[in-house]
Amino acid sequence: MSKFDNAKCPKCDKVANNRTEVETLFGIRNNSGYEMVQSWCKECRG
Ligand SMILES: [Zn+2]
Fold it and tell me: Of 12, 16, 23, 27, which has fewest CB within 10 angstroms of its CB?
């Protein structure tokens, strides 16, 4: 299991359970080949 397989928003408690959901609900940021999961979901980031 990697950090891209699940995520939880600390603001609204939304949970993503696989990479597709993480990408869809939270978003994955690519910094010159280094991938980061956004900590807040897209809705809470506005
Ligand atoms: Zn949220």
Answer: 12
CA distance 25 to 38: 9
Q: Calculate how far, in angstroms, residue 6's C-alpha sits from the geometric centre of ligand 1.
A: 14
Instruction: Give the pLDDT band (50/70/90) at residue 2.
Output: confident
21 Cα: distance to centroid of ligand 1 (angstroms): 13
Task: Encode pLDDT of 3-40 as tens digits.
Answer: 789 999 999 999 999 999 999 999 999 999 999 999 99
Distance between CA atoms of residues 34 and 16, nearest Å: 20
Instruction: Tell me the CA–centroid distance for residue 1 and ligand 1, in Å.
Output: 22
